[in-house]
# Entry
Amino acid sequence: MKEYEKYSIPLIKQLEGNWFASNGDIRWYSNYVHNFTDENITGYYLSEPIARVTRWDLWNDIANLFVERNIKTNLDIGCANNHFSFLCNKKDVLSIGIDPRNDCVNSCSNVFEENFGDDKYGYVGSFKTFIEFFSKYDEKMFDCITILNFLHGADHDPNEIKQLFELLPKITDRIIISEPNWAKIGINSLTKDYKKTWSISKENGGEHYMYEFGG
# Structure
């Protein structure tokens, strides 16, 4: 992952200090981030019921699913401040995250170090650099890849989405995603032939599915 970040950083224009700004790489502007210090629910999620349901509750449901199904490694694309991966690692599931926003990813470095040591758990990356870098691999690198609260949204490049779904089965056995709006993207469903093994629907959030590739 360090080699990936070394490749990725020069290719992503940073918008320092503005986690809500959007450009061709940075489309996670609607993913609110909030400081955390441990695995307990933060004051923000206690006071914001929609955010609690669509993020905090969703994250914990998925982290518990990983434990139940003995999923040991995960890559979270669009990790924001990597709170989800923190909760996974607290349950002994190795999860690392990538996000285009350097300041956002690094905002959690201290709490990860305090809890898990010197290993790095958050990296700067985008869909574009992820596809470009990992397309040279054809081996299972992660038990699961998560893309949460994102793919059901707008402003996706159809070619990029096609490339993403061509790559995912090569490097992981399963994904958990919010189902894309295929009609809005302008392409036929790329998940229709996948085996759906779990689903969850949160009010005010996209419906999420686990798909397994098999083989």
